[in-house]
Amino acid sequence: MASALRPITPPPALAPPAKPAGAKQPPRLPSHLFHHPSFLLLEMCATAAEVRQILPLVIKHGLYGEYNYQTKLLGLFSRFGCSGEAALVFDSVEAKNDELFHTVLKGHAKGSSLEAALAFFTDMRCARVRPVVYNFTYLLKACGDNSDLRWGRDIHGQLVVNGFSDNVYAMTAVVNMYAKCRQIDEARKMFDRMPERDLVAWNAIIAGYAQNGMAEKAVEMVSRLQEDGQHPDSITTVAVLPACADIGSLRLGKSIHAYGIRAGFASLVNVSSALVDMYSKCKAIGTARLVFDRMKVRNVVSWNSMIDGYAQAGNAEAALRLFKKLLGEGIKPTDVTIMAALHACAELQDLEEGKRVHELLLHSGLASDVSVLNSLIAMYSKCKRVDAASEVFATMQSKSLVSWNAMISGYAQNERPDDALNLFRKMQQQSIKPDSFTIVSVIPAVADISVLRQAKWIHGHAVRLNLDKNIFVLTALVDMYAKCGGLHLARKVFDTMRERHVTTWNAMIDGYGTHGLGKDAVKLFEEMRSSPVQPNDVTFLCVLSACSHSGLVDEGRKIFATMKRDYSLEPSMDHYGSMVDLLGRAGGLQEAWEFIEKMPIEPGISVFGAMLGACKIHKNVELGERAASKIFELEPDDGGYHVLLSNIYATASMWEDVARVRNMMEKKGLQKAPGCTYIELKNAVHTFYSGMTNHPQSAKIYAKLDEIIDDIKAVGYVPDTNSIHDVEADVKEQLLNTHSEKLAIAFGLINTSPGSTIQIRKNLRVCGDCHNATKYISQVTGREIIVRDMQRFHHFKDGKCSCGDYW
DNA sequence: GTCCTTTCCG
User: What Gene Ontology terms describe where this protein resides (cellular component) (predicted)?
Assistant: First the structure.
């Protein structure tokens, strides 16, 4: 547009002859001659800057005093939110007639702010100008667009006072306003009160239902309008198609498509775009693409519908391909385009592509769009770049609730639970009220910290916010309680739920599994099979790992077989890994190896990893070496697997091989993640590393540990020094005795009252000697000790562990 | 001159 304005000199043929300085003004044009080029240019203006560019031309030709020009300029300035300039023009008009007031009001209502429109409306009433119907329709539209229910009601009241309550136009606007302000029942009430309803009124109520999540009602109203003797038009179609998508009824969507074809408007851009959207939301992405490809005319909404359709369907590659095609065709992306592209980058965890979209966004004029920036936060978080996300969050000029939620979720997903919780507190300090998304984002952070007291604290928040009926919140609570050691609380929440998602069942089954209650996991899985919700691929991972942790080999085998047979689910690499774990852990190393050889897909790292772990438990050097060599081919730089292999050698006292692996690690610069154990005490989480002496209570802790070790030795504890070499026997013992698990337990014993449960968390797998020692400690102290490690829970009580020493 | 399609955080 700006470039179209560059030659602001009118064409010579129409330009008035140049006048020497001091010559008298050109004669005023009669008002019907407003087709002067400058008037046309004004009509083309899309920004205030463009109007200002043309204004000198208007003045130069003495047209500024023309009534038509004044009206036009007023309309433009008020539309572009330039109230000062609008007031200037307005004041310069000598004889202000009603029409002038109406034009200005329209401008304000259509383009600039609702406040400006309302203020002007008040001025207009003060000037005793009689309002007309479309004053109200414009004002109501502005109220609806701003979701301003209070002013909407006010204007509705004034409309009634002025006697327009039987006017179809006015009442349609009222219906629309209430629907946009999410007062769909009130909208319906007004609709029912209308003395007569034209198609536009019907369309308004249909769209209202569709936009308020009442898809069935929207569909019902389409039937009613036909009973009323009217015929749905293209707008009806466009309004009701999102409702079909909402219901997920392809059949219904197709019948509307067919109607559109019969009625001859199926190929309109808006209808086709809505069809693309409907088909992709009804999981018929191929049909969506077919409709899209057949479109003769497409607008950016058509592209957005298709791109987002792919992104939502999980076909991120196709989404990005189409996004690039859109850019290639020179179409200007909108906020929705960018959001869909970012969504696809997040899904693929494609940071480089994500950065390119970010770059594009900076030059697109959408750089301060809150929704787009929220998507950017999500994209960086999913690509494991939470610091980049946090930078976006910090520099946003305005934030919405979604921004806070996205950032909290980003921290929670990236193992930064403390940052997630701090942000959750901060938003409340700023009086921003959390919603169900916030709670669902914070809960995994609490689960990560694994402190039951905090779990109850966040649950309390959910209750106070009245969000404890939300199925997503409840599912997150089930998962969290299980991960915080409160398995019975998880089940309690689970049992109160009237509706459950597949993820709800998965969380509970996995909870039983990680707590070593394999039989309960299988039982719940059977219950699920006869429930309305059917298992998915994740369900099988949960139940198979539950079987594995409890040694339920036959059950696991049977369940694995049902996967494909009963549910047509193709086992993934992780499922095969679970099966190898199940067989191998139970001692069937040969069977596990044969299972790997018979796999229909090329076995990957998770499969050999499970094999290696089983070899460690059952001290099988030969198969362990074979599994390890496969792993090092696939992933040469993982420290954890090197340590596992070296431990297998150590258990077999093959010290030269231990040294060889350690050497290899050193050469590759690999390190074993340092083991550490967390324990919470009075709102603070204490972290212990092996051998650390810089804790304030170190002296007391080591003294307590000495005392305890003596006690447990007296009842039969023998330190397992097998895996240590090259040092004297007493040093070996000393090394074992300073493991982080033991330090944390000693700390717990000192600082908690006798008889209370001690709960700790280890970042890696719990060590064999510590596991054994903890059993004895539970016996001699009469304490219950709950240990969460990387994989599962161990409940120690009266000298026994819930895992049955099988982990 | 009133009605409509694509949207971020589980």
Answer: chloroplast
Cα–Cα distance list, A682 to A162, A686, A748, A752 (Å): 66, 10, 11, 10
β-sheet with A758-762: strand ranges across: A684-689, A676-681, A758-762, A785-788, A793-797, A800-801
pLDDT in tens, A724-773: 766 777 777 777 778 888 999 999 999 999 989 998 999 888 888 888 89
The whole-number Å distance from A413's CA to B10's C1' is 12
* Average pLDDT of the residues in A789-793: 86
In this prediction, what percent of chain A has a pLDDT beyond 70?
95
A134 touches strand B (CB under 7 A): yes
Task: Indicate whether A9 pLDDT > 50.
Answer: no
- Checking if the pLDDT of A209 tops 70, the result is yes
For residue A534, name the pLDDT band (cuts at 50, 70, 90).
very high
**Protein-proximal nucleotides of chain B (any atom < 7 Å from a CB):** 1-10
pLDDT in tens, A661-701: 888 888 888 877 788 898 988 878 899 998 888 889 988 99
Mean pLDDT within A573-601: 91
Rounded to an integer, the average pLDDT of A91-101 is 82
Which residues of chain A are in CATH 1.25.40 domains?
572-672
Residue closest to A785 by CA, chosen among A805, A750, A747, A756: A756
Q: What percent of chain A has pLDDT over 90?
A: 62
CA distance A433 to A678: 32
Q: Whose structure tokens read 């299988």?
A: A522
Domain A572-672, architecture per CATH: Alpha Horseshoe (1.25)
Nearest protein residue by Cα to C1' of nucleotide B2 = A169
What is the nearest nucleotide to A240, using C1' and CA? Answer: B4
CA–C1' gap, A302 and B5, in angstroms = 8
Other Cβ atoms less than 10 A from the Cβ of A670: the count is 17
C1'-nearest nucleotide to the CA of A472? B10
Considering only CA atoms, which of A638, A643, A600 is closest in space to residue A624? A643
- Give distance CA A469 / C1' B10 (Å): 14
Instruction: Considering all nucleic acid strands, name the nucleotide whose C1' atom is nearest to the C-alpha of residue A382.
Output: B9
CA of A171 to C1' of B7 (A): 29
Angstrom distance (rounded) from CA A749 to CA A767: 20
Whether any strand B atom is under 7 angstroms from the Cβ of A169: the reply reads yes
d(CA A180, CA A201): 14
The predicted pLDDT at position A6 comes to: 40
**Does residue A160 have a pLDDT over 90?**
yes
What CA–CA distances, in Å, run from A625 to A353, A461, A612? 40, 51, 8
CA distance A380 to A375: 9
* Residue with token string 């899209």: A292
Asked if strand B comes closer than 7 Å to A406 Cβ, the answer is yes
3-state secondary structure of A787: strand
Which residues of A in 478-497 have their CB below 7 Å from strand B's atoms? none
- For residue A170, which nucleotide's C1' is closest to its Cα? B2
Strand B at less than 7 A from CB of A106: yes
pLDDT per residue over A425-466, tens digit each?
999 999 999 999 999 999 999 999 999 999 999 999 999 999
Q: Does the C-beta of A69 come within 7 A of strand B? A: no
Task: Decide: CB of A392 under 7 A of nucleic strand B.
Answer: no
Task: Provide the 10 A C-beta neighbour count for residue A545.
Answer: 24
Q: Is the minimum distance from the CB of A304 to strand B below 7 Å?
A: yes
Q: What gap in Å lies between CA A523 and CA A543, rounded to an integer?
A: 10
Q: What is the dihedral of CA A420, A425, A427, A429, to 10 degrees?
A: -160
Cα–Cα dist A311/A712, whole Å: 59
